[in-house]
Amino acid sequence: xxxxxxxxxxxxxxxxxxLATTVKTAGNVFDVxxxxxxxxxxxxxxxxxxxxxxxxxxxxxxxxxxxxxxxVRFKFDGLTKPGNKAxxxxxxxxxxxxxxTATPIQFTExxxxxxxxxQERTDLxxxxxxxxxxxxxxxxxxxxxxxxASKLYARISNDIPVNDINKDFGEVxxxxxxxxxxxxxxxxxxxxxxxxxxxxxxxxxxxPLMDYKVGSVVISAKSGTTTNTVxxxxxxxxxxxxxxxxxx
Length: 248
Fold this sequence. Notes:
- This protein is α+β, with helices and mostly antiparallel strands.
- It is 33% helix and 15% strand.
- It is built from seven helices and nine strands.
- The protein has helices at residues 5-12, 107-120, 126-139, 145-156, 162-180, 232-240, 243-247; strands at residues 19-22, 27-30, 36-41, 46-49, 60-65, 68-73, 199-200, 212-214, 217-219.
- β2 and β3 form a beta hairpin.
- α2 (107-120) runs antiparallel to α3 and α3 packs antiparallel against α4.
- The N and C termini lie far apart (49 Å).
């Protein structure tokens, strides 16, 4: 379960100075004395959370409002949890996001597990978590998230591991895209999936000819123009699972 409140502050903020992150849930800001203001911060807005000696449910943040940087307060649980700057060693493959199960899970559960695991990652910087969160929302059917992600990308593009997102996080997003964006259209398999189709991610990141499965459709995903090298043993292994097809 995702940590929140004082437990999250102790885990992610205590003794770490000012930390950059983003707004996870849109909401009103408060002045430094705690009085609610009419100004709202949109989901995905970059902010700097100022260091404090103890947990505060409305910590002070620095944020650009109307083109001017201001110090205000914002609800703590409405902020993306910060972390360390992403590096080449950080895994963005599905196996790093708590979506591995013995049996297929439904779309809602998959999305919930993914977003919670993303929030709990301490090896990703807050703004990068915010960006990945927005593209999860977009491929889950929230089309307005595309604009939020684009604005955030423009601010933090130099820190975003684009290649890893395309290559690995694309596998995470794939099942969402199949169910919400109909990316199987024209393949002949679109009729094999529907809103109740389960999502299955193999425990092994190098499962032969399979990155994920939606309903009865097994998918091996690649980014860009790269392709899979199909090995004879992989084909024979699949045939062995279907005796009738194997004999044929």
